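call fold(seq) -> tokens
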Amino acid sequence: MPHLATKFTNWLIFVLDKHLLNDLIPILLFLCVFAWTIAILCQRLVARPSWNIGTPDLEKPALITKTTDRKPGEWIPVDFQRPDAVPYPKWDVHTTKPIPYRPFKYGPNYFVTMGLRSMKWDEWIELDNHYLRFHADKARRILQRGDKCCMTAPEAVDGVIELLNEL
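ret:
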């Protein structure tokens, strides 16, 4: 074994003596910079936020654009039927725990936005074992302060009826 170490040492001295190291320094420097650049790019690609994957681009026109002869501010009703609701499995108003809500994601860089996104129809209102108490509180408040807590502008009545039909 000592003989192998001596051979390696002699070979290393030979390489250094012949100035081959001067030719290797630029190559080694290039490889280090290249590896560092690749590592940084990989980190950025992996850490790319996924929150904007399904966000529509409002600057692009819609795929189907209809030109209608309506005045600005005029609304033409569209016939729409809500999909049938799917019942929760094993749901009970007395025992079902609230679904955990995670409005924030963990990390130092959390950008607060409006959070506009489409929702699944069955996730609009999620009932749990707090519903009966919450509903009783609301009913009591309406009886006590009905004219102060339930007011609807006359021009909004149609929208209120539509919302109640959705619920």
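Residues 2-46 form one domain.
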